[in-house]
Description:
- This protein is of the alpha/beta class.
- Helices cover 20% and strands 25% of the residues.
- The chain is built from seven helices and 16 strands.
- It has helices spanning 50-54, 72-77, 91-96, 128-132, 158-167, 190-199, 220-229, and strands at 2-7, 10-15, 18-22, 59-62, 84-86, 102-104, 108-111, 114-120, 136-141, 148-150, 171-174, 180-181, 184-185, 204-207, 237-238, 245-247.
- Helix 2 links the parallel strand 4 (59-62) and strand 5.
- The two termini are 17 Å apart.
Amino acid sequence: MKFSLLRNATLKLDILGRSxxxxxxxxxxxxxxSFTGRAPNxxxxxxxxxxxxxxxxxxxxxxxxxADHFDPVAQDLVPKHLPLIxxxxxxxxxxxxxxxxxxxxxxVLVWQGIRFQRREGSHGLGSVVxxxxxxxxxxxxxxxxxxxxWAGDTVLYPAVEATIVESRPDIIxxxxxxxxxxxxxxxxxxxxxxxxxxxxxxxxxxxxxxxxLDHATVSRDDLLKYARKQGVTSRQLLVPRDGEHLxxxxxxxx
Length: 254
């Protein structure tokens, strides 16, 4: 499996020779409103152009409709005929953007030999969840490929723990930027990232959604420093930079 981080949650996966784009966020640096008053978003530019990112893409996955996961630029540039997987309840809105091949991931979907299974997420805990709305994660499996759990915009809570215990993924992708909304934690932070590593010691844990939005409270450097102090190795916790490419295999963290 080949893994390419673009920016924030936007990444490309090459699985069974197929190219999958997840959560396209194509806005130019500083072109979106600030969340906290600290700076316009996103804080950085894409490492390559949206047109370059879209080269070869055969399937798009949109986890939820927050603008940092599927923004107006992406809604305009992503080819409307491409198959697109979304969470239940978002399909009509996405079709209103002109997309013609939209499928909600209600449970399990198999595309070109690649199996997607929807998993629950919680964009915070308590009353902030109503403000954030629903989100989803998913587990991807395919013959002769490592299994991957993309947790998405969620905090660590029992449903995430259950997914890891039940599916025993080779790779776990998390968003431990410590994003906060009105003071409430709405994504994982450094402590929860370390907890994930300890919960799944044989999995490679990849931290994305870092250093790109002004409501984040944990940087890549913060995460790495904290993880090292907690005894988590660089072999297990991977913190790629924007534009970085990884080749992933089962048992990589062992």
